[in-house]
UniProtKB/TrEMBL annotation:
Highest taxon in the source lineage: Bacteria
Protein name, per record: Gfo/Idh/MocA family oxidoreductase
Keyword Oxidoreductase: yes
Organism from which the protein derives: Candidatus Alectryocaccomicrobium excrementavium
Keywords: Oxidoreductase
């Protein structure tokens, strides 16, 4: 029985006006890795008047120079690797846009060099790497933020406001995930030596962050995980690129294209998770958050585009009657990458807190890593996180 739930919706729609600050001078900025994701970083950085891109590093000869020319960056210096750049330059901050397996070492080296770091997602590949990154962060005293731009979306913020409002009561079960019917990215994503992890590192970490951030990032306790790559290793479902045939891409494929897990979280919360790069289905289902006083349905998206797939529905009781409240789609006024870059730069200037702290994403990474480990063992395992 549908009723007017405006009073519930109003509890969750407070807005805070953004404050624009004028800065004197410019932050000296570097980019490590000039591949596809770096394009989004540089487009946002070029809009900011308080930052100067002074250095770029890439392992492929000439790639950084071509990247700078493509985007009209003038006067920057180029380096064959991150180590030589960090040694030669006095940088305030860097965007770390390397491939997954390089995230840990490049970030640790930058922090040890006294440089603030915006690290693209996933944080890294293993729990142990995440811990080593955080140890370097703690020792350096520098700022580290992880690149989860969907957090900046107004609909994602609404999900957290709904949970924080208490209208759902105690959260006890969450199902989340999503993915693509066909969406294998190829490139360095699919090789074990560069990607390390597949669909979970590419898009699964986003869906985990959406719900874990909403409920305050409780510690994961146990994981029962499953992974497969039936599609990625089959030439029929691969596509050729300018470097490889479909068969060659299938032969290169060494990560998961599908993952599922049953995760027990602190606070007696169950997380039911699944993510896919390829399957014979448009989506494995909407995200659902169940609580003792209400439930929230979050429509899935076609390809994890950083927001929700449609108007959300809040299910609750009013005066003893079952009712639903539609939560309309909210418009985010700025681009999510612009907001991600801006929040990081502001935190560097103000010596503030990281917008997306490593202390949270450690748990995100631990869940992914323990899904891999559980799948290899074929049984439930305890989540083990070394001391920082």
């Amino acid at each position: 029985m549908a009723k007017n739930g405006d009073e519930v919706l109003n509890q969750t729609t407070q807005s805070v006006a953004a404050e624009t600050k004028k800065r004197e001078g410019k932050l000296k900025y570097g980019i490590i890795g000039t591949g596809w994701i770096a394009e989004s970083h540089i487009q946002s950085l070029l809009k900011m008047d308080d930052v100067e891109i002074v250095a770029l590093a890439d392992l492929i000869p000439g790639k950084a120079e071509a990247f700078a020319e493509q985007w009209g960056v003038k006067g920057a210096r180029y380096y064959p690797d991150h180590a030589s750049m960090l040694k030669a330059e006095k940088l305030d901050a860097v965007s770390n846009c390397t491939y997954n397996v390089a995230h840990a070492q490049t970030t640790i080296d930058a922090l040890n060099a006294g440089v603030n770091v915006l690290l693209e997602k996933p944080m890294c590949v293993t729990t142990e790497e995440a811990v080593e990154i955080m140890r370097a962060e703690k020792k350096s005293g520098k700022l580290l933020s992880i690149g989860f731009q969907p957090r900046m979306d107004e609909n994602m913020k609404m999900i957290k406001r709904i949970v924080d409002s208490g209208v759902l009561g105690k959260i006890y079960y969450i199902q989340t995930g999503g993915g693509r019917r066909r969406g294998i990215p190829n490139s360095t994503f699919i090789e074990k030596s560069t990607g390390g992890i597949g669909a979970m590192g590419d898009i699964g970490c986003y869906s985990l962050d959406m719900v874990l951030n909403a409920i305050g990032y409780p510690k994961p306790l146990t994981v029962t995980g499953y992974t497969s790559n039936f599609f990625g290793t089959n030439p029929k479902y691969q596509r050729p690129d300018k470097f490889h045939t479909a068969a060659e891409n299938a032969a290169r494929f060494g990560v998961e294209d599908f993952a599922a897990a049953f995760v027990r979280l602190e606070g007696d919360i169950i997380l039911d998770f699944r993510i896919s790069w390829a399957m014979h289905l448009d989506t494995p289902g909407d995200t659902v958050i169940l609580g003792t006083e209400g439930a929230l349905r979050i429509p899935s998206t076609d390809c994890w585009n950083g927001t929700v797939g449609g108007a959300m529905t809040l299910y609750h009781d009013v005066a003893g009657e079952q009712t639903q409240t539609e939560i309309p789609i909210l418009k985010t006024k700025e681009g999510l990458f612009d907001l991600k870059i801006r929040s990081f730069l502001d935190a560097v200037w103000d010596k503030g807190e990281p917008p997306i702290p490593s202390s949270q994403i450690l748990y995100n990474q631990a869940i992914i890593d323990h899904i891999v480990k559980s799948a290899q063992l074929g049984k439930e395992i305890d989540v083990v996180i070394p001391e920082i």
